[in-house]
Design goal:
The structure holds two protein chains of two kinds. Chain A is an all-alpha fold. Chain A is built from 13 helices and two strands. Chain B has a single domain, classed as Rossmann fold (3-Layer(aba) Sandwich). In chain B, helix 8 packs parallel to helix 10. The chains are: A mainly alpha, B alpha/beta. Chains A and B meet through helix 11 and helix 12 of A and helix 3, helix 6 and helix 7 of B.
Chain lengths: 323, 314
């Protein structure tokens, strides 16, 4: 029973804005739901969303408080943990960097976060891992090139599509503003190749296993959207353009079938970023909000808010004029 | 708190366990009555308690071949409320898909529960507390776990009767992977795979052992489970207060030898009864309902007539 998507002008649902703002905690951060403890990921998404809100909203105080929460919870090695009480750097480092980059005044923190990202390799693909995998692994179970490495959800585990995409977006957003990025160019190319290698047959991505036991994996909307948006930087390469085109075609065919607001919002945002002119999703999202209030989830509120606004600069792909 | 309750005893010190095998021909059957009758047999003290039902919701599959059917979830909720529970909440943290609401809408959970508001908690994004694991089979020493699970007086595992291409089978113990929060460990919860699936299942269940298990075997999954297998109509609900005994019974129903499933063998040492001699069957006998499930080639050795050649670890 999915909400119907219709061709209408963009609809901004003020309830999402109010929902986002109401969920900000006194410590400046956001929890995953209103009333929950503040965490890095929802704070980052909320900041990214309210940074794109138009002039009708003066949200400087909220942005300052949110950025300050992120600044306070950065670890000494430059990374961010998923929750403030933890001491291990994680995938949310990319999102915190993206959120702070957009606010200005946080360059040292962003620089430290990006340096940590550049140093943080996943567990697979190293010499000993490859040797063990070759001697004891079952290569027929999964079909992917383990030499191509991106980023994992937690330190020292495998590369997956979404954390790799977030890291590429964070590094791309900083390009030109920090000097060390030229040195991580090779790392970014490796991650881009990993994403292309992990694409499902027929386009789209799931969490990162396109084939298991000989069976083709089904793509998922949110993983596909983030992979596509992160590959926007590499559109000058023919193999990337092929992956992107095939996956955008899949996304165009599939996203309106999504029964969930998170996937619907990200699908619309992604198609808009690649100028595929998606139908307006505002009314469909409003209907879903009416139904379950997005389960009260701050990241979904933020994605819905982003989906009905202009595509943020940090998500715009570099599409060559000839395509 | 549920996670503080279980005492880890070696198998020779444990009393026998009871497992109920009940026939349920379809999801239209009076499942609440079947579950209520079984709960009465087990005499759980549920008066005024908070109950968390942990189903297995893996993906947006409207046919619910890969997911615990919502009619089983709704029936369990009704049965636990009838038995005196003060609150019954459904909690799940899907392993592969971030869009939890999309899964819930695809399987029409709202239509079975009335409203999701207050009735469902997404364990992937719940508040978390750090918890030291009670066993150290894997390299993981502690995990952040959802407050909704740790606060519940009674945790009920509600898995699907399925094969699993990494673990052999996925039943009430493996189902507990879903309580591990995605926002801390990702989609999938790769830390647990990296630390070893079987060892992680033991560590997790030694820390948060389900107080009761209800396995949805009305339509299970065989072959390349947990998501790409084929439906297998078994027409059963398997229930009990020892999740190891419940899983062992399910494995036997599937035509497998539970002692050959690595995580069950480990769990049988510390967490519950694995041996058929220490499990009293209520309702149907295993022999009367047993039907072989198709397995991927690497797990053929789990079968009663399969070669004992375990797959190499990845």
């Amino acid at each position: 029973m999915r909400a119907e998507i219709v061709q209408q002008p963009a609809v901004k649902d003020e309830r999402w804005t109010h929902g986002l703002l109401a969920a900000q905690n006194l410590d400046g951060g956001w929890g995953y739901r209103e009333g929950q403890d503040s965490a890095i990921e929802p704070t980052s998404w909320a900041l990214l969303a309210i940074s794109e809100m138009g002039r009708e909203h003066s949200l400087d105080r909220e942005k300052r408080a949110g950025a300050s929460f992120l600044g306070r919870n950065q670890l000494s090695n430059g990374s961010w943990p998923t929750v403030p009480k933890d001491r291990a750097g994680s995938w949310v480092t990319s999102l915190a960097c993206l959120a702070l980059q957009g606010l200005g005044g946080w360059a040292p923190q962003v620089d430290a976060g990006l340096h940590w990202l550049a140093r943080n390799w996943p567990g697979e693909g190293g010499f000993w891992w490859c040797l063990r995998h070759r001697l004891f692994g079952q290569p027929q179970l999964v079909v992917q090139d383990h030499r191509l490495r991106g980023w994992g959800w937690t330190s020292g585990t495998s590369s997956w599509v979404e954390p790799t995409a977030y890291a590429l977006l964070a590094l791309r957003a900083a390009r030109g503003s920090t000097s060390f990025l030229a040195r991580v160019d090779h790392r970014c190319r490796l991650a881009q190749a990993m994403l292309c290698n992990r694409m499902c047959a027929g386009g789209g991505w799931n969490c990162g296993n396109p084939v298991v036991y000989g069976a083709a994996g089904h793509p998922l909307l949110s993983s596909t959207c983030w992979a596509l948006l992160s590959l926007g930087e590499f559109m000058d390469q023919a193999d990337v353009r092929r992956c992107v085109t095939e996956s955008l075609d899949w996304l165009e065919r599939s996203y309106s079938q999504s029964p969930g607001p998170g996937s619907l919002a990200l699908g619309a945002l992604c198609l808009k970023a690649f100028r595929r002119a998606p139908p307006t999703v505002g009314p469909a999202l409003s209907e879903l909000y009416e139904r379950n209030r997005f389960l009260g989830q701050v990241p979904v509120l933020a994605w819905a808010s982003l989906a009905v606004q202009s595509v943020p600069r940090w998500l715009r792909p570099a599409i060559p004029a000839s395509t | 708190m549920s996670y503080a309750v279980p005492s880890i005893k070696p198998s020779f010190q444990r009393p026998p366990s009871r497992v109920a095998i009940q026939r349920a021909a379809s999801y239209e059957a009076n499942l609440a009555a079947i579950i209520s009758e079984t709960l009465a047999e087990f005499r759980l003290d549920l008066k005024g308690r908070s109950v968390l039902l942990k189903p297995n919701f893996v993906g947006a599959d409207p046919q619910c071949v890969m997911n615990t059917h919502p009619s089983v979830v709704a029936a369990a909720r009704e049965a636990f409320l009838r038995a005196g529970a003060a609150t019954v909440v459904v909690g799940e943290g899907p392993a592969l898909e971030r869009d939890t609401e999309g899964i819930l809408e695809a399987i029409h959970l709202r239509e079975y529960l009335g409203s999701l508001d207050g009735a469902f908690v997404d364990l992937n994004v719940d508040n978390v507390w750090p918890v030291a694991l009670r066993t150290r089979a894997s390299s993981v020493k502690r995990l952040y776990l959802p407050a909704s699970v740790l606060r519940a007086d009674c945790v009920v595992s509600l898995p699907k009767l399925k094969t699993h291409h990494w673990a052999g089978v996925t039943l009430s113990l493996k189902n507990m992977f879903g309580i591990v929060p995605g926002h801390c460990y990702g989609w999938p919860k790769n830390l647990l795979h990296w630390a070893g699936i079987s060892k992680s299942i033991l560590d997790l269940n030694s820390t948060v052992r389900p107080d009761f298990a209800i396995v949805d075997g009305i339509v299970g999954m065989e072959g390349n489970g947990p998501t790409q297998g084929q439906p297998k109509a078994a027409g059963l609900l398997v229930m009990g207060d020892d999740p190891v005994a419940v899983d062992a019974t399910c494995a036997r129903i599937m035509g497998l030898i539970p002692e050959r499933v690595e995580y069950l063998r480990r769990a049988g040492i510390l967490l519950g009864n694995l041996s058929e001699k220490k499990i009293e069957q209520i309702g149907e006998s295993i022999a009367s309902v047993s039907q072989p499930f198709a397995m991927v080639r690497e797990f053929e050795f789990l079968r009663a007539n399969g070669r004992i050649t375990e797959p190499r670890s990845v």
